[in-house]
Amino acid sequence: MNIIDSSFWLEYFAGTNAGSNVAEIIKNSNDLIIPTIILYEVFKKLLLETTEDNALYCIANMKQGRIINLSDELSLSASKLSIKFKLPMADSIIYATNLKYNCILWTQDQHFSGLNFVNYFKKM
Asked: DSSP character for 28?
């Protein structure tokens, strides 16, 4: 199972070289976990930079994976991870989801660098 962080989703939708790092993973939607916080981050950024129609189209593509809502269990786990690893709220929710569902997180966000079950790529 895989989680694609917001930064890589945005690169993928923009058609950049960085986005090509996760293109094959995205195509295999059966192995894709999408925390709702990532839907929020991607939709917000796309609304700011493109049209609502484009943002909705991209979200529809993301929803081909398995959407994971923020539960009370994930909230508590994210709180602990936030303290332990000094992660911002959204990142701790993503990482808690990553650990709960035994995923590999694909990211360009340096907050995740060095954490287990993370494929970190330095942003160019």
From this structure: -
Residue 67 β-bridge partners:
34
Domains, the chain, with CATH or none: 2-120 (3.40.50.1010)
Which residues have CB under 8 Å from 64's CB, separation 6+? 29, 32
Distance CA 3, CA 103 (A): 6
What tokens appear for 11 in the block? 């690169």
How would you write the pLDDT of the chain (124 residues) with one tens digit per residue? 999 999 999 999 999 988 888 999 999 999 999 999 999 999 999 999 999 999 999 999 999 999 999 999 999 999 999 999 999 999 999 999 999 999 999 999 999 999 999 999 988 7
d(CA 30, CA 45): 25
Q: What radius of gyration do the chain's Cα atoms show?
A: 14
- Per the structure block, which two tokens stand in for 64? 């081909």
Ordered alpha helix ranges (H), 15-71: 17-20, 23-27, 36-49, 52-62
